[in-house]
Amino acid sequence: MKSCLLTLDEIETGLEKEFAKLEPEISGYRLRKPGLSMSQLQDVETALETNLPDSFKRMVRAYDFGDLTVGGVFFGQTGNYGKFLFDQNGKRHEYPWWGAAVRPRQYLMIAGSDGYVILLHSDDGKISAYLRAGRWSENAVISADFESFLRACGTVYLKRPQTKDRAEFVESIMRSAGGATESKFWTELIVGRPRA
Questions:
Q1: What pLDDT, in 10s, does the model give residues 39-51?
Q2: Which of 56, 68, 72 lies closest to 186, judged by CA?
């Protein structure tokens, strides 16, 4: 099965073409290199008492997620992705995504959208999402790994305007990213949420 996902180079070029001319007034919409250093990643792992998957570490070392938004998905918002990871997953968070209990050891919030909290499973590297109004335990896998997730977000943003069959596009993104069919995440990112 051939993947419909754009490559990282294609996404980098597409976002550059679209957003470079808008800077410095509008920033945070292009893939920039480099990302976090190995020592910064080790600090995150130590502070959060977790081991990050190699696939995730490879991507956040390659690209700066500190203030990045791709197709409706925001990653860091502080300019420093390591700080974002710590702030969202640390013990002192005022309104933790995991509720009143102890943060589930194997999950970290790595991104978000208007409707969803996006989690990394630290044991297997899979990416899942749950509705902000729901509970984290209701999460569903939306991507097999972080690179596929980023590539799917970039593909959605860059290809959606010229896509005629949105339902087929949703299916191809979900299949290529390795997402579970019970998640509405890709449908809502591509088509939008139905009105209540």
A1: 999 999 999 999 9
A2: 72
Q: Which has the higher per-residue pLDDT, 1 or 24?
A: 24
Residue with tokens 């070392």: 61
Task: Report the distance separating Cα 37 and Cα 133, nearest Å.
Answer: 34
Q: Which CA distances in Å does 14 have to 31, 46, 124, 155, 157?
A: 10, 36, 30, 10, 10
93: pLDDT confidence band, cut at 50, 70 and 90?
A: confident
Question: What mean pLDDT is reported for the chain?
Answer: 92
Q: Determine how many CB atoms are found less than 10 A away from the CB of residue 180.
A: 15
Pairing of strands 127-131, 107-112: unpaired
Which residues contact residue 150 at a Cβ distance below 8 angstroms, ignoring those fewer than 6 apart?
8, 11, 59, 63, 70
CB 127 within 8 A of CB 120: yes
Instruction: Tell whether pTM > 0.85.
Output: yes
DSSP 3-state of 25: coil
In contact, 155 and 5? CB cutoff 8 Å: yes
Which CATH code, of 3.20.20.70, 3.40.1010.20, 3.40.1580.10, 3.40.50.1820, is assigned to 8-190?
Answer: 3.40.1580.10
Longest dimension (CA), the chain: 47
Q: Within 10 Å of residue 154's Cβ, how many Cβ atoms?
A: 23
